[in-house]
Amino acid sequence: MAPPGADNLKWHAFLQDGVIPLHWAASVPRDVQATYLVVRHLGLAWVYSLAPSYISVPFEPLCWEPVIEETWVITKDSPTATRHFQMREKDVMIWLQKETLLFEAATKIRLKYHIPGNPPPRPSCFGYNRPHKSRAIAIKMTVISRDWFTIWMGFLSYLIVQTTTYGDKASTPLPCWYQLLLSHGFTDIWLSGLLASTICLFGTHNPRVGVFIQWTKQQVALLAVEWFLSHEIPIWFIWSKKEEDTIAANSKLAYLHPPNEVLQNALQILFQSPSLPLATLVMKRFFNLELVIQSTTLP
């Protein structure tokens, strides 16, 4: 099952557990190459929001702390009922409903558009819907489970942003993933809330984790850089003579050159160091200069 844009190319690909192993035998579209690199080599952590919001549909029940109740459980190891603690059943049902909707939405988008990437464990895997031996454990697992909803919000963000590459061209102002989920019974209220949430917000108003990438390693890495920047995902990379020479040889890469004030600030920190030989050695390595350092501290 080949991704979109692979028509008339000699693709050999199959879908297994949501991951598409790709073996290129011809030129592949730039956006598909970038997506392949992003997923297979950089993972999905870059998409997670640093300021997730639960204050609107469909995540508002996650805003308040659920009630932990005392319950009595009979197990195989204990013939008599023992005291346990778990979330109130009403809260458990609400969380399970939210989890199921997130899971179903992500699954339908991922499979419809053949987007590579494995889904993370579901929040219920961390036990918010099960009894625990102490109140402290029940609270701890509830907090972990709630935090894991943030991971699923990030995963859904990844899938939604990938529909710009793998999805159909929308014939209406609504994005293709919105129309897909609407056709599968998701309500307009739920989808509108999702569209207005931080899941679909890419930019400075919703900072994300970002990614470290060595774009000089291979040409396809530059495609990933372009892809990240086009979606306002922060990227970091080593700045050395190799990067400087690469940019000097190709003026089209000038946008990757750090601002001069950033470099000046970094060098000022070095020169403020009490060890002048260390600062000189760093400068030597940075500019590849043959400087003679007279010091008994550094070789």
Give a structural overview.
- This protein is mainly α and 299 residues long.
- The chain is 44% helix and 7% strand.
- The protein contains nine helices and six strands, in the order ββαββααααβαβααα.
- The strands form three sheets. Strands 1-2 form a two-stranded antiparallel sheet. A two-stranded antiparallel ribbon has the order 3-4. It has a two-stranded parallel ribbon with strand order 5-6.
- The longest helix is centred in the middle third of the chain and has 32 residues.
- It is globular and about 75 Å long.
- It starts with 11 loop residues before the first strand and ends in a 12-residue tail after the last helix.
- The N terminus and C terminus are likely disordered.
Features:
299 residues, mainly alpha, two-stranded antiparallel ribbon, 44% helix, disordered N terminus
Biggest sheet character? 2 strands, antiparallel
H and E string: EEHEEHHHHEHEHHH
Distance between the termini: 57 Å
Strand runs, count: 6
**Major beta sheet, strand line-up:** 1-2
Shape: globular
Question: Which value, in Å, is the CA radius of gyration?
Answer: 25 Å
- The percent range for helix content is 40-55%
Uncertain residue segments: 1-41, 289-299
Strand content is 5-15%
Number of helices: 9
Overall mean confidence score, pLDDT: 75
Structural class: mainly alpha
Q: Work out the oligomeric state of the chains in this entry.
A: single chain
